[in-house]
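Quick one, tokens below. Sequence please?
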């Protein structure tokens, strides 16, 4: 697990001028910052699943969506703490998008209303379950009893199992076979431990005795799905009428065998969207057959990915920050990702308002303008800037004293990288608050919002504590293949530089710790250059390279820069 940010151990309440910010508002901002990181990780989980690397239960999708909506509501709660008047209608921003997200990720459960038992030759049986005859084949000419999907749904509700089942199903990933076997076993044990009300038990026992009189046996066939999509997933044979309930429980437990789970998940369906029907017919001999592995297909994520593609535009797609100087307004937000960015931007705007506009003096806010189209709001904790900065509200890299920040900026403004935008004179005079840095002589936290991409670098090189460099990247543009390629390139580059890297979706985290200052400074130069190179190249160019090609191209650029920084 990556170490947590050390930002607020440095950017503490005491670092603001006394009386400039109430404590509850500072605490709210800290929570916004941490909750934003959590929300970005949830977005990355959606993106990761959309890339087809896992075959999971749809209830994981709906669970992630609920977590994300809850997290965003918390962000808005904290904004209202920071400025109750400005954000009095903020929950209106969330309500509509959350509603459409839930509408697209939740599902209707199978009805639990009667009938629960039908004979196949009854009018209702013929109307709704005629497909069973085809599934059973011509070898079953006699009477057939149908235990409907409503019975199984009622059984789940009567035993209040849905929550516990979903807790297990959310953990499923068919690519992990041992875990799938274990989770399926636990779900089947849960089913076998259930029961039905006495009235229904009596009705089932009577139907079983009438179906197999005179010492005959019962055969059970288990179908998942309905109509032409129905698939036989299990058989239970040699059942005496007095054992009917136990046999039915065993048959329904087949729904959670590895093969039946693979069938359902390969269709991209939630458990309640895949109805379970049990057909029962008499037999003269006891077959004693027990088989819950009748479906022999290969797990496939295509249906899950296709279904995700229908809902992700409202969740992960970024519509804001298309231009560097674009103002961010609630009416621009058309996805949950947009809302997360809006909350962070507005929270930062509030915190910088408490700290004061860019001004003279070494305390408070400065605006760092570079020879590239990047403008950064600087919060100086003390020792982060040279005394020369005291006379100016707008500063340059020459005013930066912070060792980590100077190293990062050295790579960021590398003259070998050609930015598509013009020089800094043509960049917006009011940058996004989302591009900011908090500096001291031996600490730096720098967040850069460059169009739709987010870059975060943090370093502590103070003596007496563990030294580290931490980096995060969250992309916002490109096709699925392009984003995958870009992240693969960045991962190889960072691993070669000694970072421990984790990534999923279009979100990457990297950490290097416990090294000498000179190595950490090299890492920061690399991160600055990597940020400039990735941003200026664009996802379209990087998406056309293999990870190895991108790594080698960057390594040549980095080596040349270290040899001759000018």
């Amino acid at each position: 697990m990556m170490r947590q940010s050390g930002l607020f151990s440095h950017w503490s309440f005491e670092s603001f001028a006394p009386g400039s910010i109430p404590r509850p508002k500072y605490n709210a901002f800290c929570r916004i910052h941490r909750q934003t990181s959590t929300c970005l990780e949830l977005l990355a989980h959606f993106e990761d699943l959309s890339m087809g690397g896992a075959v999971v239960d749809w209830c994981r999708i709906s669970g992630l969506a609920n977590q994300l909506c809850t997290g965003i509501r918390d962000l808005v709660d904290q904004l209202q703490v920071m400025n109750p008047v400005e954000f009095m209608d903020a929950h209106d921003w969330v309500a509509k998008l959350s509603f459409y997200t839930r509408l697209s990720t939740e599902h209707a459960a199978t009805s639990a209303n009667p009938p629960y038992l039908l004979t196949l030759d009854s009018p209702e049986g013929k109307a709704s379950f005629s497909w069973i005859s085809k599934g059973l084949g011509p070898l079953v000419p006699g009477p057939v009893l149908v235990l409907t999907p409503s019975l199984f749904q009622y059984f789940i509700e009567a035993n209040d199992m849905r929550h516990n089942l979903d807790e297990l199903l959310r953990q499923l990933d068919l690519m992990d076979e041992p875990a799938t076997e274990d989770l399926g076993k636990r779900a089947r044990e849960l089913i076998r431990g259930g029961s039905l009300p006495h009235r229904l038990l009596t009705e089932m026992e009577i139907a079983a005795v009438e179906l197999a009189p005179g010492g005959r046996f019962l055969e059970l066939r288990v179908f998942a799905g309905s109509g032409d999509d129905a698939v036989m997933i299990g058989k239970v044979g040699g059942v005496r009428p007095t054992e009917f309930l136990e046999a039915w429980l065993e048959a329904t437990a087949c729904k959670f065998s590895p093969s039946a789970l693979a069938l359902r998940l390969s269709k991209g369906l939630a458990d309640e969207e895949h109805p379970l029907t049990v057909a029962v017919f008499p037999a003269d001999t006891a077959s004693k057959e027990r088989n819950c592995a009748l479906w022999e297909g290969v797990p496939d994520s295509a249906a899950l990915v296709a279904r995700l593609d229908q809902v992700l535009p409202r969740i992960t797609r970024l519509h804001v920050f298309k231009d560097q100087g674009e103002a961010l307004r609630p009416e621009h937000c058309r996805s949950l990702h947009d809302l997360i960015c809006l909350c962070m931007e507005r929270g930062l705007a509030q915190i910088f308002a408490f700290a004061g506009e860019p001004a003279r003096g070494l305390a408070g806010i400065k605006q760092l303008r570079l020879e590239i189209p990047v403008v950064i709001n600087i919060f100086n904790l003390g020792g982060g800037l040279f005394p020369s900065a005291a006379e100016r509200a707008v500063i340059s890299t020459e005013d930066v004293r912070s060792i980590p920040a100077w190293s990062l900026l050295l790579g960021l403004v590398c003259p070998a990288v050609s930015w598509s935008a013009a020089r800094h004179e043509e960049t917006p005079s009011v940058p996004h608050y989302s591009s900011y840095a908090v500096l001291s002589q031996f600490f730096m936290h720098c967040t850069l919002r460059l169009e739709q991409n987010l870059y975060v670098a943090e370093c502590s090189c103070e003596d007496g504590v563990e030294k580290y460099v931490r980096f995060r990247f969250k992309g916002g543009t490109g096709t699925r293949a392009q984003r995958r390629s870009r992240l693969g390139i960045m991962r190889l580059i960072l691993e070669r530089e000694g970072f421990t890297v984790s990534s999923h979706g279009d979100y990457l985290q990297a950490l290097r710790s416990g090294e000498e200052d000179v190595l950490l400074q090299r890492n920061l130069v690399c991160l600055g250059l990597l940020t400039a190179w990735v941003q200026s190249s664009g996802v379209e160019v990087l998406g056309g390279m293999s990870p190895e090609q991108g790594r080698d191209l960057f390594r040549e650029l980095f080596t040349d820069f270290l040899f001759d920084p000018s």
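The chain has 19 helices and 15 strands. Residues 487 and 506 are 7 Å apart (CA to CA).
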